[in-house]
Write a structure and sequence with these properties.
Elements lengths: L1 H12 L4 E4 L2 E5 L2 H9 L8 H17 L5 E5 L4 E7 H4 L3 E7 L5 E4 L1 E11 L2 E10 L6 E9 L2 E10 L7 H5 L2 E6 L15 H14 L3 E4 L3 E2 L15 E5 L14 H6 L1 H9 L5 H17 L6 H28 L11 H4 L3 H10 L1 H27 L5 E6 L3 E2 L3 H5 L8 E5 L9 E6 L3 H6 L3 H11 L4 E4 L7 E6 L5 E5 L2 H14 L3 E4 L9 H7 L4 E4 L5 H4 L13 E4 L8 H6 L1 H8 L5 H24 L23 H10 L5 E5 H4 L34 H14 L1
Parallel strand pairs: 3-10, 11-12, 11-25, 12-15, 15-19, 19-22, 23-24, 24-25
Antiparallel strand pairs: 1-2, 4-8, 5-6, 5-9, 7-8, 9-10, 13-14, 16-18, 17-18, 17-20, 20-21
Helix pairs in contact: 1-2, 1-3, 6-13, 10-13, 16-17, 21-22, 23-25
Length: about 700
């Protein structure tokens, strides 16, 4: 009996009691793990009696709460449910709404009907459905419910039926690029791609007819540990990484400053791999000098601080405390003195008084990063790209992040996001990323989620949501173990809010859905105008194990590409260097290596087959050999692949620079850290200044344009 009650309690909280992974259906979650997960919601599961009591409390709470913290409705279905004591339900009910950006309240015409009643103790509650008869514009409203002598307040979010798109995206076959911004190499940068490089690349791309430029996540990382360079493990998705600032474009910069650091800059620029510590430290030293030179208050800086408000202030305070307490010791905010860890107003006030300059400097870094990024985004728009910048929103955030410190109660404490085993990652993945508690998230009217969406949609024409299944469910794993299960979110609310923010920010939404995708999920994305990602390596018949699909079988409502930052670049894939690398690092056994080599041999043949059948080889560079054993690289292969991609039915095609330029290193090898492999550190093989005249680059672009027609 206890098992059933425990499962019932778990399901009410959104915890999956079983799940399917890697072809094995309904893998049952142990009672021990369910109890651990329930405890993460603040629920007492110490005994059978406590489980029953908690279950009853949850059931009753749904009726005792008159209004929800937020109502998320679609514009074509304006109705909300409220719960009133039966004696109050007989009283007059009045509903008024005021847009968040308007002072005028409006009394709404409503019809209500009783849909349920529930007796709790001696009190009977009626659940009423209030149907709003007026048409309401999309947006956020302060909602006031008057019932007799009682008044209740909440928020109403009115969302459109679908996410934003444009006529250009819907009618044209667009193409463009996806970049790892850090990898851009130029004669002028300081050892890492920056926002000025982005502008230069955009100018080249626009001249060739591109309409979209995708970026890796550019959110803030650890100031004191630059080597923690994964863009998918941010300390805040609200703010930018200052390493992308072009210091030479910062107010007050002079050639004399550059001469002072000339040796370090030359070394950083010449380094084969990005030396994050060296690059970041040089930039921060110079930026601090420029910050100190600001004698009189900068009006733009003051306006930025006012606009960003408490979010910027807490972020800057977090960074200043981290610098003070963790510069030489990895301990994180959990190891800070209790008052600072728990944000005691008195302790924070004392710290802020004694570290005012450091806090102001961290705000300045965000001001300058935002200024330069926004300027780059405006420049991209001025070039006429139909979509423009295409940003990337990570699924989670570092467990030691500013996000968790400043808003910890909306995140799980002892759980981290990951993924169960799938075809690409047979051992599953433990990302150790902080993720939202769905119960607390709704209590806060989804504000933490909305803030992140807005920050990443700003200045972007499109947004890629990493692991988009997280709008519905996220696989969570114990911080201290490997066991996990899914946590379910309020999917309809999350979808509707994403649609609303996409319209308010005029931003197209793309969902990355590689992995375990729930049944019917992709159809739901399509209904909501969320574009899928079609990846060549995954676009195969027989559940990803058969022949490569011809271009006409790609999804139309998709952004198509050869691979992703986690996948092997084309030339590396052809030679099988990724298999050799994984074996060398101990990620696969010798037997697995041999089996993978055999599979790769068959896959080379399958790739050549789809290229032959679709006639995508360049006419002046027809293939002269198969090289099925990886002993050579077929002439014109990358051009043929990109023409095939160009012919895809998908609305948008994006090219990776690594595939175009024949790179034979992975940008990221999942399952490894920098002690095993230099993830996120590879520069592109040619300088930006030479890109527009590089024949390999030009021929590949010509191929994709021919495919697009």
């Amino acid at each position: 009996m206890m098992e059933n009650k425990l499962e019932e309690l778990s399901q009410k909280l959104g915890i999956a009691t079983s799940f399917s992974a890697q072809g094995i259906a309904n893998q049952k979650v142990s009672d021990e793990l369910l109890k651990f997960f329930c405890a993460q919601f603040g629920v007492d599961v110490s005994s059978e009696q406590k489980i029953k009591e908690e279950l009853q409390k949850l059931t009753d709470a749904a009726y005792k709460q008159t209004v929800q913290p937020i109502y998320v409705v679609r514009q074509n279905a304006l109705a909300i449910d409220v719960c009133l004591k039966q004696k109050d339900a007989a009283e007059k009910i009045e509903l008024t709404a005021k847009r968040k950006d308007d002072e005028n309240a409006k009394t709404l015409s409503i019809e209500f009907s009783k849909i349920e009643e529930k007796k709790i103790g001696n009190t009977t509650y009626d659940k009423l459905r209030l149907q709003i008869k007026e048409n309401l514009e999309i947006g956020y409203y302060d909602l006031e419910l008057k019932n007799g002598k009682h008044t209740y307040h909440t928020t109403l979010a009115v969302a459109p039926e679908k996410c934003y798109t444009t006529a250009d995206v819907e009618s044209a076959k667009l193409w463009g690029f996806t970049l790892q911004l850090y990898s851009l190499k130029s004669k002028r940068n300081w050892g890492i791609g920056d926002f000025s490089d982005l502008k230069d690349f955009a100018r080249i791309a626009a001249g060739l007819g591109a309409d979209i430029i995708g970026l890796n996540p550019i959110n803030a990382l650890f100031h004191d540990f630059p080597e923690n360079a994964s863009p998918y493990s941010s300390i805040s998705r609200l703010f930018l990484n200052p390493i992308y600032i072009d210091v030479e474009q910062t107010q007050g910069f002079s050639e004399s400053i550059k001469k002072k650091y000339a040796k370090e800059i030359i070394e950083a620029n010449a380094a084969e791999l990005i030396d994050y510590t060296n690059v970041y430290n040089i930039k921060i030293k110079v930026l601090y000098e420029l910050f100190e030179k600001m004698k009189k208050p900068n009006k733009a800086f003051q306006a930025f601080k006012k606009e960003q408000g408490i979010n910027l202030h807490l972020f800057a305070v977090y960074q200043a405390i981290y610098q003070s307490k963790c510069r030489n010791v990895w301990g994180g905010w959990q190891a800070w003195p209790k008052g600072l860890k728990n944000q005691s107003p008195m302790d924070l006030a004392i710290f802020e008084q004694t570290h005012e300059n450091e806090i102001e400097f961290f705000k300045f870094l965000q001001f300058e990063a935002a200024r330069q990024f926004n300027e780059a985004a405006e420049y991209v728009k001025s070039l006429g790209l139909k979509i423009g910048l295409y940003r990337d929103l990570p699924v989670g955030v570092c467990k030691d992040s500013a996000e968790l410190w400043s808003d910890r109660y909306v995140y799980f404490k002892d759980l981290g996001a990951g993924a169960p085993p799938d075809a690409f990652f047979p051992n599953g993945q433990k990302w150790c990323l902080g993720a939202f508690n769905p119960v607390e998230l709704k209590k806060q009217a989804y504000q933490p989620f909305l803030k992140i969406l807005r920050a990443n949609m700003k200045s972007a024409g499109a947004l890629r949501i990493d692991h988009v299944m997280s709008l519905m469910r996220l696989f969570m794993i114990k911080d201290t173990g490997v066991e996990g299960t899914y946590i379910y979110y309020h999917f309809e609310d999350m979808l509707a809010l994403t649609a609303l923010e996409s319209h308010l920010n005029k931003c197209v939404i793309v969902g990355e859905s590689i992995g375990n995708v729930p049944e019917g999920f992709m159809e739901k994305l399509k209904e909501n105008n969320i574009y899928a990602m079609s990846v060549l390596w995954a676009e195969r018949w027989d559940f990803g194990n058969g022949d490569f699909k011809a271009p006409q079988y790609y999804s139309e409502e998709a952004f198509a590409s050869v691979g992703t930052h986690d996948m092997t670049p084309l030339k590396m894939w052809w030679f099988g260097y990724d298999i050799e690398l994984k074996n060398k690092l101990g990620l696969i056994s010798d037997i697995e290596k041999q089996n993978l080599y055999k599979g790769r041999e068959a896959d080379r043949w399958r790739l050549l087959k789809v290229l032959d059948e679709n006639g995508t080889w360049p006419k002046d560079n027809l293939r002269k050999s198969d090289y099925l054993y990886g002993e050579g690289y077929p002439e014109g292969l990358s051009e043929a692949v990109h023409k095939l991609l160009g012919k895809a039915k998908s609305k948008v095609v994006v090219l990776q620079m690594e595939d175009i330029l024949g790179v034979t290193e992975l940008q990221n090898l999942p399952g490894t850290d920098r002690d095993k492999y230099p993830n996120w550190r590879h520069k592109l093989p040619i300088n930006l200044e030479d890109l527009a005249t590089n024949m390999t680059f030009i021929r590949n672009i010509t191929a994709v344009k021919e495919g697009r027609g």
